[in-house]
Amino acid sequence: MLWLALSVSCSVAIAMLLKLVERRGLDRAGVLAVNYATAFALGLPFVERGGGVGVGAAALGVLTGAFFIGAFYVFGAGIRAAGVGLATGVMRLSVVVPVLGAWALWGEAPTLGQGAGLALAGVAFFLLARPAPPAGGGRVDEGSEAGHAPVGRTLAVLALLFLAGGCTDLALKTFSQGFAATSSQTLFLVIAFGTAAAIGTALVLARGLRGEGRPRAADYGGGLVLGLINYGSAVFMLRAVGELPALLVFPTNGVSVVALAAVLAVTVWGERFSRANLVGLALAAGALALLWADRT
Question: Which residues make Cβ contacts (< 8 Å) with residue 282, sequence separation at least 6?
């Protein structure tokens, strides 16, 4: 259970650190570039000797890297628009996308329980996408930096977050289905991390050339910490799956991250949830449990 607890802690820490990045006004491009450069460097020593990937797996690794950094950018936007608690709930609900993708691409029809999970996830998403009004009768949540965004914009950002997170999971599912038997998983991830780092670096350089500023020491520091936690999250999850049944690990991880992120959103960041949001978080937890129940 130690590895599972560490994996949950890292996942929650990633969300909290991204909230801090938004709250402190750090350079997101710089933070994310250093984050993935760190993950890339940490993964290199673990690439197996003689391990390789084919052209198709390498191309998928590049695409996955683009999804990695894109999802992180949108996660930050979701945190600004709706707060870390609701954005984390939506990010976790994106597991719906690979479930539907597996059905469409590989004929893996959802079970009855997963069908119920899909229905719950749909309801949960719309409840989570409704920002809570602040105390005093305003329209939006005072605990969110950009909580003043209109409801329509918040819904659009969270929908994009849902798709971005889901496409990332679907890319990983595609590797597992089509390439894992003949390709090195470690090298595949290194390619993905390297691609994300290259994209992030290109964005930083482009901003510098346009005279829009360069990352500061705090941005590099934040990126380094984020990269360590990000890599640790993956390692601890693999260790947990190696010691415990996946049917226990994945639902527990998803539900725990949603619940802890919501608690910390209230206690640390002062975010507020409406009754609809609270119902949505509960439905999201139930949906995650059902969607993961028969996925192994």
Answer: none
Buried b (16+ CB within 10 A) or exposed e, 4-29: bebbbbbbbbbbbbbbbbbeeebbbb
Residues ≥6 apart with Cβ < 8 Å to 168: 64, 67, 68, 71, 94
The span from the CA of 13 to the CA of 89, in Å, is 14
Please, are residues 249 and 60 in contact by the beta-carbon 8 Å criterion?
no
195 contacts: CB under 8 Å, gap ≥ 6: 61, 62, 64, 65, 66, 68
Question: Helix 96-106 vs helix 275-292: angle between axes, to the nearest 10 degrees?
Answer: 40
CB count in 10 Å sphere of residue 243: 11
**What is the per-residue pLDDT across 206-259, written as a single tens digit (0 to 9) for each?**
988 887 778 889 999 999 999 999 989 888 887 887 787 766 787 888 899 999
**For residue 40, how far is the Cα from the chain centroid?**
18
Q: What is the pTM of this model?
A: 0.88
